[in-house]
Design brief:
alpha+beta; 31% helix; T-fold
């Protein structure tokens, strides 16, 4: 049993040395439930929405969901040339529509509470790594030092729904929070429709809404790294959003070595926290998305200190090379069901 500042968490330990990758891949469904689904490609990721209803009811709902997600991409994507974020990166100021102020405020709140482990201004480093990948080389220290000088929320001023930068080289990348915000908007909309329930899978984010036909909680499957067609275990999720960040899904290969995409804003290099992945569960998808990145960068001990502080309401599953670690709410509530034979609950 792991104990950190009075917080009790359980560990699931590998009986065999394996490399764990972690992703939401399936949802439990009651026998006899009818669902319809639609797949989209937006915000540089594959999105699937499953609704418990008939096709006639689903068609206009799917259309509206697509419009919602496209609208978020048009504002928050740094790769869309006329998006609000792209204009900020060029002009240095963003008159934030009230509907998007939650994104900015959550980004700043999580950055402050995690000592910058999540940082919305990491764009200069992300762009540097992209250039280096194209050139087939690693960044040199001088380049990293120059980029790091412009990274940090101290270069931002947030007043009366206006975001301004004080450093002309500071730039935004909201990719680690934007998908969570989009999923929040989609679920908010779906809860106002006649659809009684369903699941939204948005890259590394999965949200559930409404009730299953049998009244049970949704079961979100976690991919088994030894058999990616199977599952390692299930999280029981009555409501809310799961956001997963890991070192296995997006990465660059330079000189034969793989470098994952989750940057430590303090070093400019991919985070080396001892974690392979982290899944965050909470009611707010925007918060869950930002926290999953932050906790991955922080590592288990610092992440558990944040959990114990209760600054944000969340539960989490941490995956290292040889362990799965659950926060108290998941461990004590029995909300994680492991299925793979090579894992066991530690005493």
């Amino acid at each position: 049993m792991w104990r950190d500042k009075g917080t009790r968490i359980k560990r699931l330990t590998f009986l065999l040395a394996v490399i764990l990758c972690f992703s939401c891949v399936s949802c439990g469904r009651a026998s006899g439930e009818r669902t319809v689904s639609k797949t989209y490609f937006l915000m540089d990721t594959v999105i699937e929405i499953k609704l418990r209803c008939g096709e006639e009811t689903a068609a206009p709902v799917f259309s509206a969901c697509g419009e919602i997600m496209s609208g978020v991409e048009a504002v928050l994507s740094r790769t869309v040339s006329d998006s609000a974020v792209s204009r900020f990166n060029t002009e240095g100021q963003w008159q934030v529509d009230a509907a998007f102020s939650k994104v900015v405020q959550t980004a700043l709140d999580v950055s402050g509470a995690t000592d910058g482990a999540f940082d919305p201004t990491v764009e200069p480093i992300v762009s540097l790594w992209k250039r280096c990948e194209e050139q087939g080389r690693l960044p040199v220290e001088e380049e990293l030092h120059e980029c790091l000088a412009h990274v940090g929320t101290e270069h931002l001023v947030w007043e009366e729904n206006t975001l301004t930068r004080t450093d002309p080289a500071t730039a935004l990348d909201l990719g680690a929070i934007g998908k969570g915000y989009a999923i929040d908007l989609v679920v908010d909309y779906l809860e106002k429709t006649e659809v009684p329930g369903g699941v939204v899978s948005f890259g590394g984010n999965v949200a559930v809404f409404g009730a299953k036909k049998n009244g049970e909680a949704y079961r979100i499957g976690l991919r088994d790294p030894q058999n990616t067609a199977g599952v390692l275990g299930y999280l029981s999720v009555p409501s809310g959003v799961i956001s997963v960040s890991g070192d296995y899904e997006r990465y660059v290969t330079i000189n034969g070595a793989r470098y994952h995409h989750i940057i430590d804003p303090k070093t400019g290099y991919p985070a080396e926290s001892g974690l392979r992945s982290v899944a965050v569960l909470c009611e707010d998808g925007t918060l869950a998305d930002a926290l999953s990145t932050a906790l991955f960068v922080m590592g288990v001990e610092e992440a558990m200190a944040l959990y114990e502080s209760a600054v944000f309401p969340f539960e989490a599953v941490f995956v290292t090379e040889d362990e799965i670690i659950l926060t108290e709410g998941l461990a004590e509530g029995g909300r994680f069901e492991h299925t793979a034979k090579q894992y066991r609950l530690a005493s």
